[in-house]
What we know:
The chain is α/β, with parallel strands linked by helices. The protein folds into 2 domains: 15-212, Rossmann fold; 245-450, Dihydrofolate Reductase, subunit A (3-Layer(aba) Sandwich), CATH 3.40.430.10. It contains 16 helices and 18 strands. It has helices at 55-61, 73-77, 85-99, 111-114, 117-128, 133-139, 150-158, 171-179, 199-209, 214-223, 231-240, 272-283, 292-298, 328-331, 367-376, 388-396; strands at residues 15-25, 28-37, 42-48, 65-70, 102-107, 163-167, 183-188, 247-254, 258-261, 287-291, 313-318, 337-341, 354-358, 382-386, 402-408, 415-417, 434-441, 444-450. Helix 5 (117-128) packs across helix 6. The longest helix is centred in the N-terminal third of the chain and has 15 residues, at 85-99.
Amino acid sequence: MSSGAATSLPEPTAVERLADTVLPTRHGTFRMTAYRDDLDLEHVVLSVGITDAGARQRDLDKAPLVRVHSECLTGDALGSRRCDCGEQLQRALHLVMQDGYGALVYVGGHEGRGIGLVEKLRAYALQDTGLDTVDANLRLGHQADQRTYGQTAAILEDLGISRIRLLSSNPAKEQALTALGVGVVARQPLIMPGRPENAAYLRTKRERMGHDREAADEWEALLRGEVTSGPLGERYADLARPGGPRVVAQLGQSLDGFIASRTGDAAFVTGEEDREHLHRLRALADAVVVGAATVVSDDPQLTVRSVAGPSPVRVVLDPRGAVPTGARVLTDGVAPTLWIVGGGTVPEQPAAHVTALPWPGGGPMDPAGVLAVLRERGLGTVLVEGGGRLVTAFVQAGVVDRLFLTTAPVLIGDGVPGLRLGGTDRLADAFRPTVVRRWAAGEDLVTELDVTGLGRG
C-alpha cells in the first residue's frame, strides 16, 4: 500500500460525441448520448427534453435539472450498501424524468472519488479496520477526492446547456462546475435515508467533506416541534407543530386497491421509501393504532427504525381477544403497548411494557370512543395504521384529519382490500377530499388528503 504524497490528476478539457440513441428504463425513456474525453475516458448522458436544436433557447427560460453522477460499480450495478450511490442514481433518474427537462451525466473514471475500482476496494479493506473513507484514501497515497469535472463542463457545452439546477448534496461539486463556467442557478440536495451499513460513510461525507446535512438537522427540528421550510418540513411540518392534525391515517395499497394478496401476503406492497415515510409518521405520533387482524397476520413491530426518533405507544384493538400472547408487540419490550381487549375479560399481562385494558362498556370499539380512551392517557397525536378495515372505519367515522394514501404501481387483482368507503349512486355525491400534497416515494406515489369533511356533515 502506498503512503506517498497525493498528486493532482490531469483534468479533461474536451469531449467527442460518439453515439446518440434512446434508453427505455423503469423511470421512462431517456435520450442517451455517449462521449469520450481527451484522456480517453468514456461517459454517457441520460436526458429528457433536451434536443440539439432547442436546448440553448430553452435554457434561457428554464435551467434544466442536472445530476452529475460519479461512476460506482459497487453501488450502481452491484447494489452495495456501503454507500448511497445506487440509490442516488435511481432517485436522480426519477426526478429528472419527473421534471421533464434535465440530464444525468454519468461520469466515467470517478470510481472511488477518482482512485479507481481496485484502489477503492483496498480503501474498503482499510475502512474495515476502522479508518473512515477520507483517511483510507489518504493512507493509500491518494487525495481525499480526486474527481475533476472538466469533462462535465464540456459535455454540457456540447448539449447547449449553460445554466443548470444542480441535483447534488455536495457544495464542492457546485464550486467546481462554477469555476469551469457552468452557471449553477440553484442546487437541490439529494439526500438518501441512511442504513446501518453506510452510517459511517454518510457521517464522513457530512463532517469531513462538507456535504449537506439539511435532512438530519431538519428532521431533528421537526421532532422538537419546530417548523422548517426544507423538503421534510414541506411534508411533515403540519404534523409536527402544536395545533396541527391530531389524528392521521396511513395506508399503502396497490393501484387496484389491495393491501395484500388473497393469501394475506403483504411483504411488501410499497417500497422502502414509503416505509421510511411511515416511520416518520410513527416518530411524530404519540400512539400508533392497529387492529387485531394486522397483528395476527403480520406480527409487526410498529417501531421507528428507518429514521431517528421515538417509537410511539403501540395500541392494539382486539375486540374478540384474538391476538396471541406471543405477538412481538406483547413480548419485545421495545415500546410501551396498550392492549385494548373486548369480550368483558381482562387478559393476563404478558410483559412489563404491556398494559392490558378491557374495552369500557363492552360494546363495539367505535373510533371516537377509542380516541377518548387514548386522550385520557395523554396520547393526543394518533396514527391509525392498519389494516384496511380499521383505517376505513376511522375515516368514515369522521375522526381522521389527514389520510396518507400510498399507491404502488402493481395490480394484485384479488386480495385484502385497502380503503373501502361506502358507495354512492351518483358520482356527483362522491366525497372529494382536498389534496394537500403528493410526492414520489421511489416508484410509489404518496398522496396526503384532508378528510375532515367526511362523516362530519
